[in-house]
């Protein structure tokens, strides 16, 4: 297929196309985790996505196992608007899960009914004809285990419990402080009221100070 009109007509753009450094024009990613753990007998999604700033056409993708040359699954993607098509599959337990629609560019695979022998290096490859057929890849390591270790969870739970306990204790202390000051205030107010009323009683005989004592209660209440 010839290059789209505007590109082939403009020689400067064509030069720019091949001048793009490979690392920046296309990227393949398997996510943040380089090692994923899965329990035997279950299924696991091996993630892989790619991004291309110059776009792609008739892109070829494939997955390899343990640096072997023969792919375990292989396919093509016509363009950004079409879903990937599987052209070769070595194993019935592997299915392509991704989609390229809506710019997802997702070529993840699902491994079903995991066996211990499935553990190893899985590499996701992408070759973009629009990019001088350069190949890009990303590798994820799968470890099939008896059961997922709960150690990390327990540690997290302990930390959460401690932090939660400390926060709870602080809140309790603050509430207690509030309650105690409230009670103290109330008892002090009562004492003051008693004092005021008693002094008021005392001052009724003295005239002037008594009128002051009568003014105080409304501001307190
Ligand atoms: C996973 O392997 C363990 C140990 O070999 C076994 O006991 C268990 O039944 C297996 N689980 C499944 C789902 O096959
Ligand atoms: C890729 O597709 C799979 C299956 O639909 C999904 O579980 C996964 O989250 C997708 N990954 C990304 C990065 O979108
Ligand atoms: C693939 O590599 C892993 C370790 O990286 C190894 O345990 C496993 O046996 C290898 N599988 C095959 C089929 O060579
Ligand atoms: C991944 O790509 C790099 C650079 O293109 C290449 O050297 C390496 O051999 C590739 N890895 C695999 C497993 O094909």
Automatic annotation (TrEMBL):
Residues 196-206 have a biased composition (Polar residues). GO terms for molecular function: sodium channel regulator activity; transmembrane transporter binding. Pfam families: V-set. SMART domains: IG (SM00409). The keyword Chloroplast does not apply. One of its GO terms (cellular component) is voltage-gated sodium channel complex. Residues 212-221 have a biased composition (Basic and acidic residues). Keywords: Disulfide bond, Glycoprotein, Immunoglobulin domain, Membrane, Signal, Transmembrane, Transmembrane helix. It is a single-pass type I membrane protein. The chain crosses the membrane at residues 155-176. Residues 21-141 form the Ig-like domain. GO terms for biological process: cardiac muscle cell action potential involved in contraction; regulation of ventricular cardiac muscle cell membrane repolarization. Residues 192-221 are annotated as: Disordered. SUPFAM superfamilies: Immunoglobulin. The keyword Methyltransferase does not apply. This is Sodium voltage-gated channel beta subunit 4.
């Amino acid at each position: 297929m010839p290059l789209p009109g505007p590109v082939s007509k403009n020689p400067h753009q064509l030069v720019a196309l091949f001048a793009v450094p490979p690392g920046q024009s296309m990227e393949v990613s398997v996510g943040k985790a380089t090692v994923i753990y899965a329990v035997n007998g279950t299924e696991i999604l091996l993630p892989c996505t790619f991004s291309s700033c110059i776009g792609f056409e008739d892109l070829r993708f494939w997955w390899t196992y343990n640096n072997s040359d023969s792919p375990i699954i292989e396919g093509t993607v016509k363009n950004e608007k079409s879903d990937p098509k599987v052209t070769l599959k070595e194993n019935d337990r592997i299915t392509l899960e991704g989609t390229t629609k809506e710019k997802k560019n997702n070529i993840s695979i699902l491994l079903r009914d995991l066996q211990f022998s499935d553990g190893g290096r899985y590499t996701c490859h992408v070759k973009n004809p629009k990019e001088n057929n350069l190949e890009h890849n990303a590798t994820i390591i799968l470890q099939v285990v008896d059961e997922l270790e709960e150690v990390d969870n327990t540690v997290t739970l302990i930390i959460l419990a401690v932090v939660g306990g400390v926060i709870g204790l602080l809140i309790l202390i603050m509430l207690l402080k509030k309650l105690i000051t409230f009670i103290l205030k109330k008892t002090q107010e009562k004492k003051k009221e008693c004092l005021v009323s008693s002094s008021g009683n005392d001052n009724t005989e003295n005239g002037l100070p008594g009128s002051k004592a009568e003014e105080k209660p409304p501001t307190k209440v």
